[in-house]
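Q: I'm building a small set of examples for a reading group on sequence design. Run inverse folding on the following structure and report the sequence directly after it, with nothing in between.
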């Protein structure tokens, strides 16, 4: 029986990872978070506490020998230190969920794991998020080596799919539901890498116990480069509706405050080839993943009585 501890696990990618783990035999799933959204799933043991306080980690997580600790919510090096320093029992593998945002979009694209890293906090909405994530990666390596805890660092690109609480794909779904026009940039400079949340979960699970991934850093990114125009094209295909987007200059979009969810005139392109080759993994095509995301969205809207 493998003991798996998930830090986070109630929202979005962590929740999907729990659901995928539940499909496996001989896995004991444990989840530690603040308990704001209990899972209440058969086969899942839930511990409640705040990972920012060492005493709560020590007191609320029983001692086990952990085959893997999957950390979905470490945003700073301090959070990595606090968890690993206070967790009771041996840890065979620490899997840190980071982000492709730690990589610079310079030089050859799509950016591989070896691309130059950012050199400080971003300006704008993202702020210090990516910089803190990069520092958390360094902490996982430094603290892991000091304590003899093997680590694996996974960097997802833009995640979409079931339970997504961020206004990414739902931004477009909302406009379609409300029969409002979809505004997109009048250029094709903005190209993005996505990862369907189920693919992400399956890749995380494939890394558990695989010695080849220890000490490694891996991007999670499907092959297709997706533009705003491609999103609209796929939406038309999966809904059977004719959708004519309104193309505007970036300056006009900014002036009108239209809250498009991704950059307007720059790429966010990353290569997920390294892990794909390692596991002979096939990423889910964007069209298929977006169809599943829309199906989930419509189900939620029906439950809310807003469909």
């Amino acid at each position: 029986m493998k003991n798996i501890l998930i830090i986070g696990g109630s929202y979005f990618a962590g929740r999907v990872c729990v659901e995928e783990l539940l499909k496996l035999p001989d896995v004991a799933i444990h989840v530690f978070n603040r308990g704001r959204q209990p899972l209440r799933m058969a086969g899942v043991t839930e511990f409640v506490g705040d990972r920012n306080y060492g005493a709560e980690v020590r007191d609320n997580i029983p001692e086990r020998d952990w085959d893997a600790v999957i950390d979905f919510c470490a945003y700073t090096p301090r959070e990595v230190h606090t968890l690993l320093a206070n967790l009771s029992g041996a840890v065979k593998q620490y899997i840190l969920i980071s982000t492709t945002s730690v990589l610079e979009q310079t030089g050859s694209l799509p950016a591989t794991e070896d691309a130059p890293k950012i050199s400080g906090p971003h300006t704008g909405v993202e702020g210090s998020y990516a910089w803190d994530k990069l520092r958390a990666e360094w902490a996982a390596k430094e603290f892991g080596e000091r304590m003899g805890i093997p680590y694996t660092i996974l960097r997802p690109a833009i995640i979409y799919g079931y339970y997504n609480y961020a206004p990414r794909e739902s931004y477009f779904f909302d406009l379609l539901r409300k029969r409002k026009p979809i505004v997109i940039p009048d250029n094709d400079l903005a190209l993005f890498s996505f990862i369907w949340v189920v693919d992400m979960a399956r890749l995380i699970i494939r890394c558990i116990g695989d010695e080849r991934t220890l000490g490694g850093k891996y991007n999670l990114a499907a092959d297709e480069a997706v533009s705003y125009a491609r999103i609209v094209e796929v939406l038309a295909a999966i809904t059977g509706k004719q959708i004519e987007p309104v193309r505007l200059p970036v300056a006009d979009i900014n002036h009108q405050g239209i809250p498009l969810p991704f950059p307007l005139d720059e790429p966010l392109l990353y290569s997920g080839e390294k892990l794909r080759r390692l596991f002979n993994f096939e990423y889910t095509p964007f069209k298929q993943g977006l169809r599943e995301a829309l199906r989930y969205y419509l189900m939620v809207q029906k439950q809310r009585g807003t469909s």
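The radius of gyration is 20 Å.
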